Amino acid sequence: MTVRKAWIVGGAVLGAGLSFVMLLVVGVYVVAGNLANGVGGATKALAKGAVPAAYQALVQKWGNLCPALNPALLAAQLYQESGFNPNAKSPAAAQGIAQFIPGTWATHGIDGDGDGDRDVWDPNDAIPSAAKYDCTLASYVKDVPGDATSNMLASYNAGAYAVIKYGGVPPYKETQNYVKTITTLEDSFAAPVGRVDPSKQAAAAISYAQNKLGTPYLWGGDGTAQDGGRFDCSGLTKAAYESVGVTLPRVANDQWNAGPHPARDELLPGDLVFFSDDLTNSRAIRHVGIYVGGGYMIDAPRTGAVIRFDPIDTPDYFGATRVTEDGAKALPTTV
Description:
Layout: H1 18-34, H2 53-62, H3 71-82, H4 102-108, H5 123-140, H6 148-158, H7 160-166, H8 173-189, H9 202-210, H10 233-242, H11 252-255, E1 272-275, E2 287-293, E3 296-299, E4 308-311, E5 317-321, H12 325-330
Antiparallel strand pairs: 1-2, 1-5, 2-3, 3-4
């Protein structure tokens, strides 16, 4: 689904050049497969636009509060909790961008911006408080064996006592899943170092999308019989990856978080490519396609158009995501 605005794609539909691009897809993907054993790494730098611009500096600053925390990890927690919505409120009365419950806020909320109050609804207080709370938990379990970050996240979910009792992440399925979810999501907020390995499912996802070339666009379309087999942009990318067993969120700006983010010169076929009028804010993404190589993508552009090949090098190009199965599974169903 295009988000917030319909995207008018520059450039004409490829006609006579279609067979050339199809061959290009195959050739580039073969090369990509031969390069699968790349070098990866972790970093504390946030990926471009991963955090809304209004919160970027806060997350970068407070995400370095203690060694067990980093900005990408803090961003992953905020996204998981509220989708960066400062007005979020859960049925359990969790409040604000960091989803503090009143009792926890009363104990751990701080005046992050020094304006004389502690406001759970103000990200300038809530984001620093979330970081401080994480680091307080890390201090409680600093002598526990194992990974300090995993122990901190387990303490957040199950309590520090359980981590101390079991000498690490406790054998609770919910807690183990929480630790895996946040550390997996962390990869989608961190700027990658070196090469990002391609998804195993990428070739099949491209094949699915190629089979839909020429299909008319439908806003909100998921390709069902009820939709007449038609798609919008994120409906197509979701269906393409669902065909190989990877479930993505429905809208484009949530699909951004389904894996790490290769640079433009590191793109490989199967990467999702995103477009936005605000290049500082992933929550403003409004269009997505599937990269096929040679500077082109397959996408469902807009009402009145059909699924087709389009160039990606336009002024509103935001970035790319290399979909991973774990990354997709870590995404919340709603944010």
